[in-house]
Design a protein that fits this description.
Structural class: alpha+beta
Number of domains: 4
Strand content: 15-25%
Shape: globular
Number of strands: 17
Helix content: 25-40%
Number of helices: 22
Largest sheet: 10 strands, mixed
C-alpha cells in the first residue's frame, strides 16, 4: 500500500454518493457492515494485505448519513453496555529482582512482541498501574512489546497511529496536506513507553528504545503489509527531560499545541509536549517526494548593548512573535515601545490619547484565555535574543528566583491564587512569578530566559500527607526543576557557553541535585538551607566549619529593609549596606539520599563556606554555605563561586524594578491570564531599564546613541543645560 485510501474524501464526492444510493436501493443489504463490504469492493478500498477496509468505510458512511445524504440500515443491537475494558491479570505484576545498575549487566534482556492473551494481560496491567496515561486504548494499526529479563518484566512499549495533524512535525517533514493524507500511515506513534518506577538502571531506557526501533518496521510489515518510515513520540517536559530519547538519537522538532486527537472544539486542554521523531528510513523525504526544509538560521551571537537604542529595542525584543493574529504580531513591539517610554503608567495614559493604539492594545490583552496570546508567546522573541546574548559570553549565570505579585484588591479578577493571609485569616489574592534571569559574570543583565506565572493553591485541609509523601511534581519547588530543564535545553544550542544556575536557599532540595546529575548540561550553585547528614560522622555544617581557612575576602553586604512580623513570617531587622571581611573554606562532601528516595546513589558536591569572624555589634555575622557542582580545588575557584553568588541579588533588583518602576501590581484586568500578558511585556521593559542603569554605571564612556534615540539625547542635553551641567554631545 504505497498510498493510503482516502475513504472519507472519496465517498464525499457527489458521484460516489449516487453509487451508494444505488447500492442501498437494491435492498440486498440488511446491515451496515454488508453495505460497507460492497462499497469497499466497488471503490477498491483494500489494505496492504488485500483485506477490505470495512471499519473505516462504516465510519465514513455514518458521517454521510448524519449529513442527510442517505439512510443506512438500522444498527444491530448487540447489547453492549459500554466501552470494553482491557483484560487484566487480576493481581499486580510481580516485582523485579536484583536489577543491576548498568544496562549492559541486565541478564536476558529481550523485547517480546505481545501476541497471546497472557502477554496482553501483563502489558495492560503494567500500563494501567504504572504508566501515567494508562493502557489506552491505542488507535489504528497497533504493536505492543514487553521488556523482559531474568530479573522480571522491566516495562513495555505501545505503538499506534500517528497524530492526524501536527504543525511542527509536518513543517519538519515538509509535506503538504495532500501528501500527508496519502502517506500518514508511514508514520507510527510510540504511544506508550514504560520503564517501571522500581527499576534504577543507567542507560536502560535508551538501550531498549534502540531495540524497539530496530524491530518495529519489520514487525509492522509482517503484520500489516507495509513498512513505516518514521516514528513520533511526545515528552511532557513538566515531568521528563527526554534524556533517553536524545541518547537513542531521536530528534526534537517542536511542540504540540495542547490538543488531543478528539479536541474538535480547540479547547487545548492537554499539556504541551515536546515532539520527538526517529527516521526508520534514511531517505524519508525522497520516498515522500518532498523537499527537505530549509536549514535553520544559525544562532548569531549578540553583544550585550546591541540593538537597544530607543527606537529599535522594542522591535528587536518582540519582533517575530506568533500570537495567532498578524496585526497583533506586528503591533506587539509598538505596544512595548509605548509602555517602555512611560513605565509604570497604564497603557491608556502612556498612549497619550491614541485611540487606535489603545483599542489594539486591549484587543491583545483581552483575547480569550485559551488563545495563542500567552506569556510564553509574548516572551519568545526576547528569549531568542537572550540566548543570542548568552552565545557571546564564555560563562553566564542563570539566576532563578520567585516572587509573589499581589492583586488582593482585584476582588473580581478570575483565576487568582492565594499568596498569603493576615492575622485575621483573610486571604491575599495574587500570582506567583518564577523566572530565570540571565546575567554576565560582570553582572550585566542579558535577558529573561524563562518566566512562569501561576495561581498558588493552599494545601487541602484533608490532605494529611507528609511532605516526603507528596510527589515532587505536585510541589511548588518543582518550578526550580522545570527551569533547570529549560536551561539544559538551551545548553544544547550553546556548546561553547558555560551555564551556572545560581539559586537561593529555597532550591536546596535533593531532587534538584539529582536532576542535575542525570543531565549534567549546566552547573549548580545553591545556598544551603539544610544541615544534611554526610557520609562522614559530622553533619554538613560542622564538617565544613572544621575545615582549614583557605583565604580571606572582602564582600559587599547589600542593604536590607526591615519587615514587620506577619502571620507566617518572622520580623526582620533592617541594616545598611556594608563591607564584610570573611574567611573562606571549601571541601568536597557526599550526601546520602533521603529516606523517601531508596536505592539512589549518594551525591557528591563541593561546599564553599563563608564566615564573617568579626561582625559589627549591631549586625548579624555573614555565614553562607554554598553547594555547587563546579569543581573547587583552589582558593581562586572558591572566590569565583562566591562572587557569582553575590550577583544573585541582580534578580532581586529586577523584581524591585518590576514592582516599583513598572508597577505591575497596579495592573487591573478581569482574569489572571490577562494579567500574565501584561506582566510579560513589563518583564522585558524592566530588564532594559535595569541594563541601561548598570551600563551607565559600569561603562560611563559608552556612546549615548547605543541606548537613546536622537530626540531623547536632545532632551537629555537640554535637561543637563537647565541643571547647569556640561552636556557632552559624544555621550
Amino acid at each position: 500500500m504505497d498510498a493510503q485510501n482516502e475513504i472519507k474524501r472519496r465517498l464525499k464526492q457527489e458521484t460516489s454518493i449516487e453509487v451508494i444510493r444505488g447500492l442501498l436501493a437494491q435492498k440486498e443489504h440488511r446491515s451496515r457492515s454488508s453495505v460497507a463490504e460492497s462499497v469497499c469492493q466497488h471503490f477498491g478500498f483494500f489494505d496492504a494485505r488485500q483485506r477490505t477496509q470495512s471499519a473505516g468505510c462504516v465510519k465514513a458512511l455514518r458521517e454521510l448519513e448524519r449529513a442527510g445524504h442517505f439512510v443506512l440500515p438500522a444498527a444491530l443491537d448487540r447489547g453492549r453496555a459500554g466501552a470494553k475494558s482491557p483484560q487484566r491479570l487480576g493481581e499486580p505484576v510481580e516485582a523485579v529482582r536484583d536489577v543491576p545498575e548498568q544496562a549492559k549487566d541486565v541478564l536476558g534482556l529481550t523485547l517480546i512482541k505481545v501476541e497471546d492473551l497472557t502477554q496482553m494481560r501483563v502489558w495492560n496491567e503494567l500500563m494501567i498501574c504504572e504508566h501515567p496515561q494508562g493502557a489506552g486504548p491505542l488507535v489504528g494499526a497497533q504493536m505492543r512489546y514487553l521488556i523482559g529479563s531474568e530479573h522480571g518484566w522491566l516495562g513495555g512499549f505501545g505503538f499506534g497511529a500517528a497524530a492526524l495533524q501536527l504543525r511542527d512535525r509536518d513543517q519538519w517533514i515538509g509535506w503538504d496536506a495532500h501528501t500527508r493524507r496519502q502517506h500518514l500511515h508511514r508514520v507510527v506513534g510510540m504511544s506508550r513507553f514504560l520503564i517501571r518506577t522500581s527499576v534504577r538502571c543507567q542507560n536502560l531506557a535508551s538501550c531498549v528504545q534502540g531495540m524497539a526501533l530496530r524491530r518495529v518496521a519489520g514487525d509492522y510489515e509482517a503484520q500489516y503489509g507495509y513498512r513505516p518510515w518514521l516514528v513520533e513520540s511526545f515528552v511532557d517536559t513538566d515531568h521528563f527531560i527526554g534524556t533517553s530519547y536524545r541518547a537513542a538519537n531521536w530528534v526534537a522538532v517542536g511542540q504540540t499545541q495542547g490538543r488531543g486527537r478528539q479536541d474538535r472544539e480547540h479547547h487545548s486542554a492537554k499539556s504541551i509536549k515536546t515532539i520527538y521523531v526517529y527516521e526508520l528510513e534514511s531517505e524519508l523525504r525522497t520516498r515522500l517526494g518532498v523537499a527537505a526544509p530549509a536549514a535553520p538560521v544559525a544562532l548569531v551571537a549578540l553583544e550585550i548593548a546591541e540593538g537597544l537604542d530607543g527606537q529599535e529595542w522594542a522591535g528587536n525584543e518582540f519582533g517575530g512573535a506568533n500570537l495567532g493574529d498578524r496585526r497583533l504580531n506586528a503591533r506587539l513591539g509598538e505596544f512595548a515601545q509605548t509602555l517602555g517610554a512611560m513605565p509604570g503608567r497604564a497603557f491608556c495614559g502612556a498612549a497619550q490619547g491614541d485611540k487606535a493604539a489603545i483599542k489594539a492594545y486591549y484587543r491583545l490583552i483581552e483575547r480569550p484565555d485559551d488563545s495563542q496570546v500567552s506569556m510564553q508567546a509574548i516572551l519568545a522573541p526576547h528569549r531568542l535574543r537572550t540566548v543570542q546574548r548568552m552565545k557571546a559570553q564564555a560563562t553566564v549565570l542563570c539566576i532563578q528566583d520567585g516572587c509573589d505579585v499581589n492583586y488582593s484588591r482585584l476582588v473580581q479578577c478570575a483565576g487568582l491564587g492565594v499568596i498569603g493571609s493576615n492575622q485575621t485569616g483573610a486571604k491575599s489574592g495574587g500570582l506567583h512569578l518564577h523566572s530565570t534571569f540571565v546575567v554576565s559574570t560582570e553582572g550585566l543583565p542579558l535577558g529573561v530566559l524563562r518566566a512562569e506565572c501561576w495561581a498558588p493553591t493552599p494545601k487541602a485541609k484533608d490532605d494529611q500527607r507528609p511532605a516526603s509523601a507528596i510527589p515532587i511534581e505536585d510541589k511548588k519547588t518543582f518550578a526550580w526543576i522545570k527551569a533547570l530543564r529549560d536551561c539544559n535545553e538551551v545548553a544544547a544550542e550553546l556548546p561553547d557557553t558555560r551555564q551556572v544556575c545560581v539559586m537561593d536557599r529555597e532550591a536546596d532540595f535533593y531532587e534538584l541535585f539529582d536532576e542535575q546529575r542525570q543531565s549534567r548540561g549546566v552547573e549548580l550553585l545553591v545556598r544551603a538551607k539544610h544541615d544534611r547528614a554526610t557520609s562522614e560522622e559530622l553533619n554538613l555544617f560542622d564538617a565544613v566549619r572544621d575545615s582549614p581557612v583557605q583565604s580571606q575576602l572582602r564582600i559587599n553586604v547589600p542593604r536590607q529593609s526591615s519587615r514587620a512580623k506577619k502571620s507566617k513570617q518572622k520580623a526582620r531587622v533592617g541594616h545598611a549596606q556594608r563591607t564584610a571581611q570573611v574567611d573562606v573554606r571549601y571541601r568536597e562532601v557526599e550526601f546520602r539520599p533521603p529516606s523517601n528516595h531508596p536505592g539512589k546513589e549518594a551525591i557528591k558536591l563541593w561546599v564553599v563556606h563563608v564566615l564573617e569572624a568579626s561582625a559589627p555589634t549591631d549586625a548579624e555575622p555573614v555565614e553562607w554555605f554554598l553547594l555547587t557542582t563546579c569543581s573547587i580545588t583552589t582558593a581562586a575557584q572558591a572566590q569565583e563561586c562566591l562572587r557569582w553568588y553575590c550577583l544573585r541579588w541582580r534578580i532581586e533588583d529586577w523584581h524591585r524594578v518590576l514592582k516599583s518602576g513598572c508597577r505591575i501590581e497596579t495592573l487591573q484586568h478581569k482574569t489572571a491570564e490577562r494579567l500574565k500578558r501584561a506582566i510579560a511585556i513589563n518583564l522585558v521593559i524592566a530588564w532594559r531599564i535595569m541594563l541601561m542603569t548598570l551600563l551607565g554605571r559600569q561603562c560611563p564612556d559608552l556612546p549615548a546613541e547605543v541606548l537613546f534615540s536622537d530626540p531623547e539625547i536632545e532632551v537629555l542635553q537640554a535637561y543637563a543645560k537647565k541643571k547647569h551641567r556640561q552636556a557632552d554631545p559624544a555621550r
